[in-house]
Design goal:
The structure is a homodimer.
Chain A lengths: L1 H22 L24 E4 L5 H12 L18 H13 L3 H8 L4 E6 L2 E8 L11 E6 L12 H6 L9 E6 L17 H14 L5 E5 L2 H12 L4 E6 L9 H9 L4 H4 L3 H7 L2 H12 L1 H6 L3 H8 L3 H14 L13 H4 L2 H14 L2 H12 L6 H4 L6 E5 L9 H7 L3 E6 L7 H4 L1 H19 L1
Parallel strand pairs in A: 4-5, 4-6, 6-7, 7-8, 8-9
Antiparallel strand pairs in A: 1-2, 2-3, 3-5
Chain lengths: 455, 454
């Protein structure tokens, strides 16, 4: 009798433990429907439709008319970019946009990769899908999903794509790349209902990849792409073979992080802090608090009144450009705030910058892009997914001028299987666009490591 | 020898004490110059030039063209004003603006009071100056300066002015009213140099009143007008006979404020809390923290990137209207966020609301109006003036739906001579425009009390 009870307890305990272990780290999510009105009765439309980016004379004439009627107002003397986008330099950018920027040519550039749309949960989701050409015999391409952020787009990845799908180095992995637009961004339809947050985007992208036939894949993201791909790893850890990030600010500062902030200056080695970590973190109030407050106004208003702040931006291309390009200046290097031209073209070409702006302008998506902030923050900072760790192999590319610096210790708090942590040579927030070679190389290194393990 | 030294020490001590005492409560401010480039040599232009608000066909055609080319984008289903200004209702407002709103008639309305401009510290300062007509024999009008805030203007005071300059009640005081536009707002020129904060505005307005010949005067303000008039009282306490406010959130929560928050629910009488105070303050996190965070996004971005956020608003009248009118909805009553029309016309007429928007639109001042936030906040919340108390007789009109509720105890922390504290029957942040009779009455009561005392 005693033996049976003992055995039952042990077996019960083991079963309980196993169930708890598999239960614990998985994020749950219910289906949603984001179309207008009520879902139609008919079967879901799972067709995949090729999509071509287009423009026409009318669109350009409208743009030019609006640019020509912009009402200028000078920035304060000697203010550079410290009050926001400087009026002088804005004039330069706008002149280029009006007279030299060739949107038709840029549209051709956009179309050099195949675009598609497919309807998921009631809305059309846009994505770019690039299959490698000339795959060697017996080699399968490794699928990679890359998710953009705000105020970026799929276009940020364009210079990286060839380095991933047609790498020059024969030892490098050949990727098959999918770059979707988050619903509400760019050429993806905007949700019509409240509540579309990063977990919804993650679920929608899982459905996309399933629809495209992928059983497993790698995911890369920065900015919102970081949270969306992280949520994807939390929703279906078995499907995400590896997660590569360049942005991962801690959602909840746990004890190790707090201790490291308090003592890291004196005992850097204990916390694994290198010189760059020290430089970026200390003095703490200036670097972690003041800098954040200085640069998070956009986040605050977008997380509370997106329909208000976005309204004017959808009528004024110049206003939209100022709003978006200010980030490409300041988030590439904080010190650019003190430059008359915001250092905008030090790391980016005006053609690339304006192409990204045009994607927001022609799609009219600025308001819905801002709503993503409200959907994600309005339930508070205590979302289930922000408390949940990630158990998928992760690689982190630590760019020196990233908006929020995260030393290895902090990344490890959430990403429990951090396989690579690479201090990168240079680059800021828009690293994929700013340093495509460096980023592609790190994705290669991380993926190669993971793929070797699988074999 | 010893006696002389002792006497010297005592006299020195007394002089030091007197000097310190007079020093302590007075805000200091240096002259500034805000024009373009470097100041020209030559005498300062002190002339006062009459100003007429004008409009023309071109201005209206441009406005209509822009309205007609607005690119709509629908708000989320069932979102009312929770994501900001609702697209449906915006469409209605814009239709009225395009078809029915008569800007020419509103301009005539604006011109029914005399406007002027005068150059101070290098920039043209605009103001409305209304002298009472038919002053009885031997009665001098009491001068009153009224300062607006953001996103308001001098126009907010228009319904109040006749109640102050031509009161029906013979016992009421007859005021002479001056309503300036803060530099960077409305028809006042915007500063061209960095650093124009509320203390600068206060100093400029002191110069204005001096130029108009006033030795002493009363001052009224809400929103930015609160800080500007408070700074005026701190700069020259002898000149401000009385300070009347409807907005005065504590800049630094001192011990009494903190204790009252912690214990006020259990011991309301101890802190002088009435039922309305309790309702507005508790639960603390929801009412003081969450609500503030929900409604201060505009302040955050304007205090850091005014040139960025304002740029599009200067091209898109519809965008500008949404941005400004959202405040006239939400700051009148937070619950209006849950209404499809934001409750906008419950307390205001579209004509008045759009007239205010048109002042921002036609003057193109939205960017400079936003810069005032950066100038005031970027040096931090620890400015000298925010730590200094105010020793000028003060009257406070406590409107029930004001953005930040301040019970009497909190107001007293800074305003050490609080003479009147009136819980008002109804009204929110734009109280002067929403409840002009109530506000005018409170100004009358406060001023009458002060004038009798003199």
């Amino acid at each position: 009798m005693f033996t049976e009870v003992m055995l039952a307890l042990v077996v019960g305990g083991v079963i309980y433990f196993l169930v708890q272990k598999s239960k614990r780290p998985q994020l749950k999510s219910e289906d949603g429907w984001w179309g207008e009105g009520t879902p139609p009765d008919r079967e879901e439309d799972v067709s995949i439709r090729p999509y071509t980016v287009r423009t026409d004379k009318e669109e350009l004439e409208d743009l030019y008319r609006r640019i020509d009627q912009t009402r200028s107002f000078p920035s304060l003397e000697d203010s550079q970019f410290t009050y926001g986008f400087n009026s002088q330099y804005l004039q330069n950018v706008v002149s280029y946009w009006r007279h030299d920027f060739d949107w038709r040519r840029q549209v051709d550039q956009l179309n050099k990769y195949p675009h598609y749309k497919t309807n998921i949960e009631g809305i059309d989701v846009h994505y770019v899908h690039v299959r490698p050409k000339n795959l060697p015999e017996g080699v399968t391409a490794v699928p990679l999903l890359m998710v953009h952020g705000w105020p970026g787009s799929f276009y940020e990845f364009y210079r990286m794509i060839p380095l991933l799908t047609q790498p020059s180095n024969p030892d490098d992995i050949m990727f098959e790349v999918v770059c979707p637009s988050i619903p509400g961004y760019c050429f993806s339809e905007a949700p019509h209902k409240k509540g579309f947050d990063s977990v919804c985007a993650a679920r929608v992208f899982h459905k996309l990849m399933k629809r495209l036939g992928f059983q497993q894949f790698y995911a890369h993201g920065g900015d919102w792409g970081w949270i969306v791909t992280t949520n994807m790893a939390q929703l279906e850890p078995k499907i995400i073979k590896g997660l590569h990030l360049n942005f991962a600010p801690p959602s909840k500062p746990g004890l190790p992080m707090v201790l490291s902030i308090m003592l890291g200056h004196r005992f850097p080695k204990i916390f694994g802090f290198n010189e760059h970590d020290i430089q970026r973190i200390y003095p703490v109030v200036q670097n972690l608090v003041v800098e954040s407050v200085k640069e998070s106004g956009y986040m605050h208003i977008q997380a509370t009144k997106p329909d208000t702040v976005g309204r004017g931006l959808n009528d004024s291309p110049v206003g939209l450009a100022a709003y978006i390009l200010e980030k490409f200046s300041t988030w590439t290097d904080h010190d650019f705030r003190n430059l008359d031209d915001g250092g905008l073209t030090r790391k980016f070409s005006l053609d690339d910058l304006l192409t990204n702006v045009m994607i927001y302008w022609t799609s009219g998506c600025i308001i819905s892009s801002m709503r993503f902030y409200k959907e994600n923050f309005s339930k508070g900072l205590d979302q289930p997914h922000s408390k949940m760790p990630v158990h998928v192999p992760t690689g982190f590319a630590c760019f020196p001028n990233e908006l929020m610096h995260t030393p290895k210790l902090w990344v490890q708090q959430k990403y429990r299987e951090l396989k690579t942590f690479t201090p990168m040579a240079r680059g800021g927030h828009f690293a994929a666009m700013e340093e495509p070679e460096l980023m592609a190389q790190d994705i290669q290194n991380f993926t190669k490591m993971q793929e070797k393990r699988k074999k």
